[in-house]
Amino acid sequence: MSRLGIRPVQIPQGVKVNVTPTLVAVEGPKGKLSQSYDPTVEIAVKDNAVHVTRKNDSKQAKAFHGLYRQLVNNMVLGVSEGFKRALVINGVGYRAEVQGKLLVMSLGYSTDFAVAIPEGLSVALEANNQKVVISGTDRHLVGKFASEVRSLRLPEPYKGKGVRYEDEKIRKKVGKTGVK
């Protein structure tokens, strides 16, 4: 039995979950999310909680059992609280600014990067434009956009310059030393 899949997902106050035979829709104060699901699992709402069960014990059904429980949990958390991912920009002259629906970043290259902010996400700048906070209701979309922004200038191991996640630790290498 799936250790994660058997746990019910508690529905907080103000969140509505609607289950159809192929789709789960969650609506809350921060927005709406929906997810289609495989017919090898059953999703039901009972006693102010979402229960995910599997129809058989095939390998595929076992894999989907925990997956869809966690996807429903992420949707419920997203529409009630939302998700955030913070990126720190480290380097001389490195900075970011938001221009409408574009995130413009100066990262030490000859030209600036302009990245379109996806629909449903918001970007805020903190700490003198050295910290980019990406927030939204869809956990997958927040993580994917944060990953794309980080990939524009990966942190280098000698000085730590580049874009890194706020909770990421960069292992620094020792540079060259003069031989005497």
Explain how this protein is built.
The chain is α+β, with helices and mostly antiparallel strands and 180 residues long. The protein folds into 2 domains: 72 residues, Outer Surface Protein A, domain 3, CATH 3.90.930; 83 residues, Alpha-Beta Complex (Outer Surface Protein A, domain 3), CATH 3.90.930.12. 19% of the residues lie in helices and 38% in strands. It is built from 2 helices and 13 strands; from the N terminus they run ββββββαββββββαβ. The strands form 4 sheets. A 4-stranded antiparallel sheet has the order 11-12-7-13. A hairpin with a 6-residue loop joins strand 9 and strand 10. The longest helix is centred in the middle third of the chain and has 22 residues. The protein is elongated and about 65 Å long. It starts with 8 loop residues before the first strand and ends in a 15-residue tail after the last strand. The mean pLDDT is 91.
